[in-house]
Each structure stands twice: as C-alpha cells, then as structure tokens.
C-alpha cells in the first residue's frame, strides 16, 4: 500500500489571543512533534484521554486548524503551501464525521440539503433531480429510507443523525475521512450499528480512515493500526494485533487494563494510575507520562524518550519499553 | 440477602396533561437489600435517572409520581415534603454525573463537606473538621489538609467526583445513589473512581444504587442488575447470572453488541433500530420493534416480570414460551 | 450490508408523532405566530388595520387633512367629525389617518435599513474577527455613545427635518445596536459544530455566511427590528412634537399632539387620539416581536 498522507513533525500551540494587559494564560501545547504516515485504504485509530490532542490532530490533518509547525503532505502536496482556493478544492478528497450528532447538522436545513452540501460545493450536482437521486442513493447506503430526505435533523435520533453525517462525508467519494469520536455520544445499542456501518463503507469505498476515540475497545473492530496519544505526543503505535496482544508502553497497558469489561467473572490485576493528567499548558519535562508512570526513573525526568521502532510497524516512546501482556485477557481466554 | 432497605413498588412517573400523559417510568418494582450494590442499566429515555431522582423526591414539579418507595419501612412518597431534607444527605446520599454543577463554585470544598455534616448532626467544629479530613482521606484525596480551602474549579473532574462522594458519605448514609458517576470521566480516572466506590462500600457497608449506561461499570462493582428500557424493567438478576445467562433478547443483544478489548470478531453484533424517545411506545413490549424474536402477542400486551431461577426476573413472552 | 437489516423493521414506528408534527416551514412559522396566542392575534390584527388605513388614507379619510374652516373650530366629536376638529377647524380623524402614513413609514423604514447595514457589519466583525472585528467594533462603540434622539435632533436642526434626512439619521442611530447583536450572535453560531462541518465539507466562506450564519441569527435581529420600529415611531412623534420632524401643515401623530397641546383647554381630542394611536401601535408591534422571537428560537419553540 502506498502512502496517502505523510505527517512530519506536526505541532500546534494555542496561545491566549487576547490583547488585554496583565498576565496571559500560558500557551497550550496541544500537539507536539507528531510524525506518522497514513496508507491508502487503511484505518488508523488515534486513542487517548481528553486533552491528549487527538481531536486537534484530526483537525490539523484537514487544515481546519493551522499547524504551528511541521508539515502535512497529502498525495505529495504540502498542505501548508496551498492557497485557500486550492485547499477548498482539496476538501473534496478529505471529509470529516463529527462527534456531536446534534450540533453538527444545521438545525434549519433539510436532510437533502445537508447531505448534498459537499457535492454542491464542488459543482457535482447538475440538476435538482440528479441531486435528489444521489442523496436518495446515499441515504439507502447508510441504512435510512430515502423518503426521509425532506425532513429536518431534529426529527431523527442520535444514531440516525450520525448516519446522515456519514452520508454527507462519503457523498463526494473522498480518499480520506477523519471520524472524531463518532460513536461516543450515542446509546450503547446504537454504537455497534455505526461502527459496522463505517467498517462496511470503508470496505466498499476503500477510503483511508482516521478514527479518533478515547476507548481502545471501540477501535478494536475498525482499526488496522492504532496510535496512542498522551499530552500531545504519540507514545505508542502499532498494528492492532501488536497493541492489543502486548502493549509496550506502560500508558497503553494502563488504558487497556482500566477499561471496564462487561464480565464480572474476569479476574483482574488492574493498574490504577495515580493522579490526574497534567495540564497541557504545563507538560512535565522529559517523558510527559512520568508523573503517573509506575516505572518512572530519573532518566524519564531528564530525557524525553523518542519514538523508537522496536519491531516492524511498531514504535514506542518509552525508556523501559517491553512487552506487557494484559492480565484479564489471560483470565478470559 | 437480608431484608430490603429500599423497596420500590409499582412506581410510575408521568409528565404532561390528562389525555396524553408522557409515561417515563411505567409500573416498575424492585428492591435494594442492606449492603447490596444494585445497578440500573439503561440507555437514554429508559427512565433510569428519573427512577433514582424519585427516591429522593427530586423529580421535577410537573411530574406525577405514583406507587410506593419504601425506605426502612416508611413510604417516602407519603412523607410530608418538609421531612425529605432530613432524609436527603443523612439517610440517602447522592453522587451526580456532573460534579462541577453539583458543587458550589464560591465555597471551599472544606466548607461544603462541613456543611453537609452540620445540616444533619450537632457536633462541635473541631470534631467536624476531623471528620472532613477523614472523609477526604477515605475518598482518596491526596494531601487533604491543604485541599480544605481549595475551590471546586481548582480540581479536575475526577477529584471533584471524590469531593462529591465525600459530601454524599458525610453522615454515613445507609443508601448511596450514584447517577452515572463515571460517565464524564476519562478511562484511567474512571478506574480510580470505581476503585473508590468499592472502597466506600467495603468500609461503610452502605447499599449502593448505581445508575449507568455502561455494562462494563456494572460488571465491575454491582451484585445485582436491573435492566431498564423505555420506562420498563425488562430483566432483573444478580450480576453473574445476568452476564453469563442473560434471558431477555434486549440484554442479550446489548451484551453481544458491546465492543470489548479481547474479541476477535470481524463485525460487531448490532441491534437494529433506534432507542425510542421516552414515553412514545404506548402499548405492548417497548422493545418489540427492534426485537428479533417478537411475536404477535408482544404488540398487544406488556409481558409481566416472571421469575426463572431464584432472583432472576425477565419480562419477555418469547423467553416465557421457550421455558414452558 | 446494514440496509437490508434496517429495512426489516418499521422505522416509522420509532419516530414519535410529536417529532413528525414538528416539521415546520416558513409558512408554518408565520401561521404559528399569527394563530399562536390571543394577544398575538390581536396585535397582528391591529398592525394590519393600521397599515391598511395608511395605504388607503386618501380614499378613506373623510376630509382633506389640511383644509381649514373657521366655522368648525374646536368641535367635539359628532357624526360629521368622529374625532372632532382642531383649532384651525381641520378634521382630526382625517389628520390621524393621513398622519399614520408618516408615522408608520418612519417606524418601518429606518429599522429595516438599520437591520440590513447592522447585520452586514456585525456578521463581518463576528465571523472574520481580528483586525476587521476591532475596527468595526470601535466604530460601533463610538456611534453607540450618542443617544439616538440627540443625534436625530442635532442633524434635523442642522440639515432641516426633511423626511429622508430623518430616515438617514435614525438608520445611522439604530445600526450600531443591530451590529452588536449580529456580532454577538455570529460569535455564538460560529462555535456550532455545523459551521465547522460546512468548512470541512468545502463550502466557500460567502456561502457559509449566507446559508449557515445569517438564518441562525435572524431571530434576535427580527426582535430588535420590532423593538426599534416602536422606538422609531416614538422618535418621529417626538421630533414632530418638537417641531423638527414632519413639517406642518402635513400631519403626523407627533405634530397632531403638539398642535393639540397648545390648544388643550379648548379640545382634548387631538392629544387623546394621537397618544392612543402611538401607544396602541407601539404595543402591538412589541407583542408581535415577542411572538416572532418565541417561534423562531428553537429553545422556546412550543
């Protein structure tokens, strides 16, 4: 598979924009020196807790936010160097599915207008009739009756709205879709529907997929590769099999072990991390995870661990990287 | 188990006017025994939060509540309104989903916990301070002496939830109601808060009524589980038998559709359809439109809760037929 | 694939009837405003009657509003003169009917102009931010510092109280209010996820503004428009009362009151008629504005 997007040293710092006198809020380091590649047709999951910069990263890739440093190279083209008009044309190739199924659909517009919006932007709809036919096709594809197209979003449930948002994203046949926590606002019994739908659509259409989530269990089914983020940095990245079988970074291990599993018989040696995630405006020196890490040593304070490739497709940023099989997995096997 | 601490009988909660009331909780009955941890699991519109609020008589004024909520032999619904404050906080503590909006932003956390004690017990200030510190230590607050004078906005979500728990446990209540206590928290912080709740249960021997949408959280700390859907109880069983031998098609579907860390299926099982908005399904079983084993009878008549194994109740015609 | 399984069950079963009843187009909004509450119905009726009267003034007024008659001075109401006559023997009802033209055109014209310009300024400031925002906001602040009545008196005194002068003055005076409301609403709407969704979909900036921002800030603008309409009628009356608005002998409600005041002890009917007309119209427009807001705002919509 060839590379679709090459991300090189990407970073974003948000600073207090106000002009007022007196102390400013310290700048927030949301994304810090992130580099990786997304291959054509692959599903990559970014997993991390709130404030780890995963949503910012997704928006940086789509140039919805301008990076402070680093490059996003999409099909060989550096997105920072595109003009506004060029960028707008490039959006046809990259679309987004949002977390909030209620807020991300304009409440005053009909479903047909919402779904056709990207097509309209790129002049892909010749006539009214053709436009309605295309929308009907898309609605069927995402599992909604096409007769619903003249309704307003408020008449739909959260899961149905998320289907509408997905139909909008795939309407222009993009090569790349960023899905920002697309199921975390949905009811439990609806999440599986949406995950399956996105998986099916990806198989059918072959787009590359960046799936952002706070929960490793959700991405288990959809991702080919998983990247774990902590305080703006990628701490571990590998194929799904590698990550779930034996994480190498103690944070990945803790994330896996902390997720509550619907099985009361599983015996667990839970790793419960102490303390809170530090503020991204005040990231600890050296390894950002060291303040909560059970393995932390002096070197972790003095030296920031770089992402090292420890086996093919597998990188870890930890001075003490080593396989850490998950205990409850053994108990349940 | 021993006798019931909380016994809810035929509880119904309705909104709206005469001819077309919106019934958000429909004739439910269940009990919580002394020292027991019961989870109410449900999706949006299931009526789980309304049920919890009704125990403290905190449902909105517009709601009509009928049935019985018997707590230690007294029907809370029949108590005069002015006696409820003495029960809230003293006999029954509560933890909410959003700890920030439940804490007063202009009061230090020390004062807020102190107030919770002072409202119900007449003890001198130095002893109250000792109790406040003990509570903060109990909920795992690091360095409690220095945190007394801090304000809620100086804490993270997980720490606020600990403060909430300290307030809820201030007078050693017999029942703790926790409404989605971990939903707003990150995974690693959620693990901390769940560990804290287990610790509270071990030390106080309080009963806990946990409201959640997360089957994982239930499996983690509950002994018994009540599954609600669209205002009805569909299944009520002890946790082990629910997770190993769910009998209602909704519970079965839910358990199969939850993504877990260790399953290797290519596709997730999915329950079709949408969750019905509260009170919109008027007749028959509310799960019928999404059910794979539905029968004609389901459209007409709501199946009653029937006991199968001891302590395992299920409301489903198909289950009943299969068992017959 | 998913579609097959989904079509297995009746989806319509699951969409509540309440939600279906919620399907509202623009026509429904108008209908809802009009048939909503009794008070709104009355207000709507009143405004319509006044507008119709203003339009048909030359045909329905029983007398020429400026024709004087020495024989008919200071008459009380009678079958010939329903509201009596003033000190020049002019028919008060006819003057009221003709005066409604000046008063209402005033009341509606400047708020509409001001809403137009104010929305352009406010949306630009709110959407683009940065230097554009700072520039517009400072100008708006400066204009806001002038009380609109004072501004109107100033310009009317300097340039003369011609009709268009006063319209321009009031437009300038009202624009900052609209700009502020439009800016604040734009800032709020800009944060909505559907705006980001539109950007991500590749929608161009002008389309985002016209299709996604403007319709969603319309509610507060419309309400403000009705509020200013009422003020505008009041200000016209005030200016005319002070003698720098509509010039005699042309009638407006303001100068009818003014003429009536100097003649108060002979007949009270001109003051009563002018005062009541202003009160009724201002009240009706305000009630209408409230209802429009209630219906347009999804939060308070019934």
From TrEMBL, chain A:
Coiled-coil ranges from the UniProt annotation: none
Domain ABC transporter as annotated: residue spans: 5-256
Chief localization: membrane
Family: Belongs to the ABC transporter superfamily.
A GO term from the CC aspect: plasma membrane
Keyword Transport assigned: yes
InterPro entries to which the protein is assigned, alphabetical: AAA+_ATPase, ABC_transp_ATP-bind, ABC_transporter-like_ATP-bd, ABC_transporter-like_CS, Oligopep_ABC_C, P-loop_NTPase
Subcellular locations according to the entry: Cell inner membrane
Gene3D superfamilies named in the record: P-loop containing nucleotide triphosphate hydrolases (3.40.50.300)
Membrane topology annotation: Peripheral membrane protein
Keywords linked to the UniProt accession: ATP-binding, Nucleotide-binding, Transport
Name by which UniProt lists this protein: Peptide ABC transporter ATP-binding protein
CDD domains: ABC_NikE_OppD_transporters
SMART domains given in the database record: AAA
Source organism of the structure: Mesorhizobium helmanticense
Regions crossing the membrane: none
GO molecular function, one term: ATP hydrolysis activity
From TrEMBL, chain B:
Pfam families per record: ABC_tran, oligo_HPY
Location relative to the cell: Cell inner membrane
Coiled coil: none
InterPro entries, A to Z: AAA+_ATPase, ABC_Ni/Peptide_Import, ABC_transporter-like_ATP-bd, Oligopep_ABC_C, P-loop_NTPase
Main location: membrane
Superkingdom to which the source organism belongs: Bacteria
GO molecular function: ATP binding; ATP hydrolysis activity
UniProt GO cellular component terms: plasma membrane
Recorded family membership: Belongs to the ABC transporter superfamily.
UniProt protein name: Peptide ABC transporter ATP-binding protein
TrEMBL record, chain C:
SUPFAM superfamilies documented for this protein: MetI-like (SSF161098)
One family name in Pfam for this protein: OppC_N
InterPro entries given in the database record: BP-dependent_transpt_permease, MetI-like, MetI-like_sf, OppC_N
Residue ranges annotated for the ABC transmembrane type-1 domain, each copy included: 100-289
Topological type in the membrane: Multi-pass membrane protein
GO CC term, one of those recorded: plasma membrane
Domain of life: Bacteria
Keywords: Cell membrane, Membrane, Peptide transport, Protein transport, Transmembrane, Transmembrane helix, Transport
Segments crossing the lipid bilayer: 42-61, 104-128, 149-174, 265-288
A single BP term in Gene Ontology: protein transport
Subcellular location field: Cell membrane
Family (UniProt): Belongs to the binding-protein-dependent transport system permease family.
Protein name: ABC transporter permease
Organism this protein belongs to: Mesorhizobium helmanticense
């Amino acid at each position: 598979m060839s590379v679709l997007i090459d991300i090189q040293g990407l970073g974003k710092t948000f600073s207090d924009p106000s002009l007022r006198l007196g102390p400013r809020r310290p700048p927030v380091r949301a994304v810090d020196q992130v580099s990786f590649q997304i291959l054509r047709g692959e599903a990559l999951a970014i997993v991390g807790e709130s404030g780890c910069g995963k949503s910012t990263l997704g928006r940086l890739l789509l140039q919805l936010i301008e990076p402070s440093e680093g490059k996003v190279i999409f099909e060989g083209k550096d997105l920072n160097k595109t003009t506004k008009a060029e960028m707008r044309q490039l959006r046809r190739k990259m679309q987004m599915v949002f977390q909030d199924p209620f807020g991300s659909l304009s409440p005053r517009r009909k479903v047909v207008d919402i779904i056709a919006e990207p097509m309209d932007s790129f002049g892909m709809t010749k006539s009214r009739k053709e436009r309605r036919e295309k929308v009907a096709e898309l609605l069927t594809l995402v599992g909604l009756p096409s007769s619903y197209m003249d309704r307003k979003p408020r008449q739909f449930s959260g899961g149905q709205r998320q289907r509408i948002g997905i139909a909008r994203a795939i309407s222009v046949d993009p090569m790349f879709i960023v899905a920002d926590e697309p199921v975390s606002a949905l009811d439990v019994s609806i999440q599986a529907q949406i995950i399956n739908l996105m998986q099916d659509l990806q198989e059918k259409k072959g787009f590359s997929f960046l799936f952002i989530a706070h929960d490793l269990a959700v991405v288990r089914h959809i991702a080919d590769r998983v990247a774990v983020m902590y305080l703006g940095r990628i701490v571990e990245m590998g194929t799904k099999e590698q990550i779930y079988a034996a994480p190498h970074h103690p944070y990945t291990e803790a994330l896996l072990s902390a997720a509550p599993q619907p099985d009361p018989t599983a015996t667990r040696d839970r790793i419960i991390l102490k303390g809170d995630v530090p503020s991204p405006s005040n990231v600890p020196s050296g390894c950002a995870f060291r303040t909560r890490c059970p393995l932390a040593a002096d070197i972790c304070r003095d030296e920031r661990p770089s992402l090292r490739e420890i086996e093919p497709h597998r990188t870890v940023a930890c001075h003490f990287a080593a396989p850490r099989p998950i205990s409850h997995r053994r108990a349940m096997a | 188990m021993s006798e019931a601490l909380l016994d809810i009988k035929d509880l119904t909660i309705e909104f709206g006017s005469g001819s077309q009331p919106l019934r958000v909780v429909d004739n439910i009955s269940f009990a919580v025994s002394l020292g027991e941890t019961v989870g109410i699991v449900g999706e949006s519109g299931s009526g789980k939060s309304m049920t919890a609020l009704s125990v403290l008589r905190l449902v909105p004024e517009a709601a009509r509540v009928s049935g019985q909520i018997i707590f230690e032999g007294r029907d809370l619904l029949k108590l005069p309104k002015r006696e409820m404050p003495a029960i809230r906080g003293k006999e029954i503590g509560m933890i909410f989903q959003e700890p920030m909006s439940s804490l007063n932003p202009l009061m230090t956390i020390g004062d807020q916990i102190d107030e919770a004690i002072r409202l119900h017990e007449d003890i001198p200030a130095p002893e109250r301070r000792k109790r406040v510190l003990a509570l903060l230590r109990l909920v795992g607050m690091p360095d409690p002496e220095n945190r007394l004078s801090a304000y809620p906005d100086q804490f993270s979500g997980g720490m606020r939830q600990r403060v909430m728990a300290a307030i809820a446990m201030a007078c050693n209540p017999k029942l703790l109601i926790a409404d989605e206590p971990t939903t707003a928290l990150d995974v690693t912080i959620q693990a901390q808060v769940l560990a804290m709740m287990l610790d509270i249960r071990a030390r106080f021997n309080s009963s806990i009524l946990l409201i959640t949408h997360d089957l994982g959280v239930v499996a983690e700390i509950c002994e018994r589980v009540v599954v609600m859907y669209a205002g009805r109880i569909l299944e009520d069983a002890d946790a082990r038998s629910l997770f190993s031998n769910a009998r209602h098609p909704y519970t079965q579907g839910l358990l199969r559709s939850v993504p877990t860390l260790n399953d290797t299926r290519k596709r997730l099982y999915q329950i079709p359809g949408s969750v019905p908005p509260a009170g919109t399904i008027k007749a028959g079983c509310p799960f019928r439109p999404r059910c794979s084993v539905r029968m004609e009878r389901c459209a007409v008549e709501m199946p009653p809760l029937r006991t199968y194994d001891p302590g395992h109740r299920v409301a489903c015609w198909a289950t009943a037929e299969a068992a017959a | 694939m998913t579609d097959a399984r989904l079509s297995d069950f009746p989806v319509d079963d699951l969409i509540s009837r309440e939600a279906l009843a919620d399907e509202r187009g623009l026509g429904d909004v108008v209908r809802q405003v009009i048939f909503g509450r009794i008070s709104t119905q009355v207000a709507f009726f009143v405004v319509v009657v006044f507008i119709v009267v203003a339009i048909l003034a030359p045909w329905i007024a029983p007398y020429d509003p400026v024709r004087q008659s020495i024989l008919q001075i200071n008459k009380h109401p009678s079958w010939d003169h329903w509201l009596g006559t003033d000190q020049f023997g002019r028919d008060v009802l006819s003057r009221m009917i003709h005066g409604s033209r000046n008063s209402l055109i005033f009341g509606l014209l400047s708020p509409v102009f001001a809403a137009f310009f104010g929305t352009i300024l406010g949306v630009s400031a709110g959407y683009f931010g940065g230097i554009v925002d700072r520039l517009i906001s400072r100008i708006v602040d400066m204009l806001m510092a002038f009380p609109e009545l004072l501004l109107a008196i100033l310009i009317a005194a300097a340039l003369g109280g011609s009709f268009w002068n006063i319209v321009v003055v009031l437009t300038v005076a009202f624009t900052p209010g609209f700009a502020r409301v439009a800016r604040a609403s734009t800032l709020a709407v800009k944060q909505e996820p559907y705006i980001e969704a539109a950007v991500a979909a590749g929608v161009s900036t002008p389309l985002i503004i016209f299709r996604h921002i403007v319709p969603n800030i319309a509610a507060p603008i419309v309400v403000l428009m009705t509020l200013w309409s009422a003020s505008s009628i009041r200000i016209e009356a005030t200016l005319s009362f002070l003698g720098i608005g509509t010039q005699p002998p042309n009638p407006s409600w303001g100068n009818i009151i003014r003429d009536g005041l100097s003649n108060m002890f002979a007949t009270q009917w001109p003051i009563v008629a002018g005062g009541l007309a202003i009160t009724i119209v201002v009240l009706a427009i305000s009630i209408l504005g409230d209802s429009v807001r209630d219906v347009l705002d999804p939060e308070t919509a019934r």
